[in-house]
Amino acid sequence: MNYHWDWMFFFQETDDGLKYYDWILSGLGWTTFVSLASLAVALILGSVLGVMRTTPKRWLVGLGDAYVDVFRNVPLIVQLFMWFFVVPELVPENIGLWMKQDLPYFVIAIVGLGLYTAARIAEQVKAGINSLSRGQRFAGLALGFTEWQTYRYVRLPMAYRIVLPALTSEAMNIFKNSAVTYAVGILELYFQYKQIIEKTSQVLEITIVVTLCYFVLAFVMNRILAFVEARTRVPGLIVGTKGSK
Amino acid sequence: MSDFDFSVIVQNWAFLAEGLRYTLQVTLTAMIGGILIGTVLALMRLSSIAPLQWFAAGYVNVFRSVPLVQVILAFYLILPLVLQMITGKQIPVGAANSAYFTFTIFEAAYYSEIMRSGIQSVPRGQVGAGYALGFTYGQAMRYVVLPQAFRNMLPVLLTQTIILFQDVSLVYAIGATDFFGAADKITQRDLRPVEMYTTVAVVYFIICFTLSRLVKWLQSHIAIIR
């Protein structure tokens, strides 16, 4: 194979006076920032939607279901393009102009990725709440809690702990999904990967390095949430007995 | 909104349909190839031979931790290098063809995890019963375990295929003309983003929504009653 290996190119200077490893670090920073911000959006909105879909109110359930159906059945890249190129044309002209000119790119990307992921989180939050026995809600109501208070103090604290493993894999997925935001101009890790390949042609080295970066991001997220899982484990459930016996 | 121009879609419908055909072809190829390779990987992962287990676990973990867009670009660039190494000749692969390969290899990792849990969902006694009837390992898998695993996992396999169908849109990264790519290319030329992207989103929604409802229906009708 006549591939020319050159691991030292990472320390070569680029056109803009930086080194190639600086590009990777800056990409890594953007990937982390966009992913974590989107995750925050997704967790908040996903929780609201998940709760809505378990309430006795039919229209709230319908609204939540419709949201999940729409956002799960359109590819992420198409959703991002909708937010960037279609929505600004459909809203009133002055808002559209503001979205195109003044609103930073990354805000739209974060919102787009967040809304996409929210649909997945809503599914899990709903599953978690539905896995609780009805008695938990009844007990709460019998104590004089309002419907909302049974969520706040009884059902959500249980539901989150039950679905934490599923939320963990969603939190790891968001790093991978954030790579798609390169298509709408975010200078994240995949963008830098593509750019470095165009400049240097050292495909194999950069592929290995960027793969490792994504691996580390997902792994760190996994460890953090595994720690949270261990700390918030519910005693008495099957998973709760692991290690404590 | 008032000047939503349907004629742009009508004029370019043939090009869009061609893109959709490519998307479907990649989806079907990767589904069939991915399930076959995935099943082999799952059997390796569950076998008692350690190197096979390591290989399958490594394969699955590597592909599941990398963004698909990155794999699409990497394979597009690396595949010609590998072919050149094997054959000694320069063989142009092209973006459209490399995607078939990439998606098959990539999706195999995901299908393999589904098949693994399908195989593990079959009661152990079934394998024992197979051996008691004088089946070899291959026969027990072929006639007893895999048919049940496949049936148990059919809804999940199909759900993964719907995700795959959506993910083909990421060949945007290498400029292949799938359904979304076709719409994007027309947009570059005619500058009608609202019409084109909305059409793509609506068509994707209709197809995926219908399929996911079918899977739901299937799920309630296919379950083995024990």
UniProtKB/TrEMBL annotation, chain A:
The chain crosses the membrane at residues 20-49, 70-91, 103-122, 203-225. Residues 28-225 form the ABC transmembrane type-1 domain. Keywords: Cell membrane, Membrane, Transmembrane, Transmembrane helix, Transport. One of its GO terms (molecular function) is transmembrane transporter activity. Its main location: membrane. CDD domains: TM_PBP2 (cd06261). PROSITE patterns: ABC_TM1 (PS50928). GO terms for biological process: amino acid transport. It is a multi-pass membrane protein. GO terms for cellular component: ATP-binding cassette (ABC) transporter complex. It is found in: Cell inner membrane; Cell membrane. Belongs to the binding-protein-dependent transport system permease family. HisMQ subfamily. This is Amino acid ABC transporter membrane protein 1, PAAT family. It comes from Aromatoleum tolulyticum.
TrEMBL record, chain B:
The keyword Plastid does not apply. The complex is composed of two ATP-binding proteins (GltL), two transmembrane proteins (GltJ and GltK) and a solute-binding protein (GltI). It comes from the Bacteria. InterPro entries: AA_ABC_transptr_permease_3TM, ArtM/GltK/GlnP/TcyL/YhdX-like, MetI-like, MetI-like_sf. Keywords: Amino-acid transport, Cell membrane, Membrane, Transmembrane, Transmembrane helix, Transport. One of its GO terms (cellular component) is ATP-binding cassette (ABC) transporter complex. Belongs to the binding-protein-dependent transport system permease family. HisMQ subfamily. It comes from Aromatoleum tolulyticum. It is found in: Cell inner membrane; Cell membrane. Part of the ABC transporter complex GltIJKL involved in glutamate and aspartate uptake. Probably responsible for the translocation of the substrate across the membrane. The keyword Transmembrane helix applies. NCBIfam families: HEQRo_perm_3TM. The chain crosses the membrane at residues 22-44, 56-79, 91-111, 156-176, 196-215. It is a multi-pass membrane protein. It holds the Pfam family BPD_transp_1. GO terms for biological process: amino acid transport. Residues 20-215 form the ABC transmembrane type-1 domain. This is Glutamate/aspartate import permease protein GltK. GO terms for molecular function: transmembrane transporter activity.
